[in-house]
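Incident log, structure service

09:12 report received: a user says their structure output differs between two submissions of the same chain.
09:20 pulled the input from the user's history:
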Amino acid sequence: MATFVAIRNLPGITPDALMGAGARVKSCAAGMQGEGTDVRWIRSFFLPEKSQTHCYFEGPDMASVRELNERAQIPFVEIVEVAEMTPASI
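09:34 re-ran on a clean worker, output below:
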């Protein structure tokens, strides 16, 4: 499975709104998995100084990740495939 990041600009977002968005994406991912599309939300990072989030997903393709975010009604600037690098992998 490939890994993708959804980059979002969310000026003025509140902590409660962030939690609500997380709940929606978690629920929509479960729904898509139940329909046979293996797409998963891995984690998100919030950059308060930029009012931006970077949300990481695993999925079979970019279209599935895009559909998940659209179902969850969470805006994004772009979704791109990423390659993971960790200290352990070097």
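09:41 both user submissions now match this output. Likely a transient worker issue. Closing.
09:42 reviewer note: The first strand starts at residue 2 and ends at 9. The CA atoms of residues 11 and 51 lie 5 Å apart.
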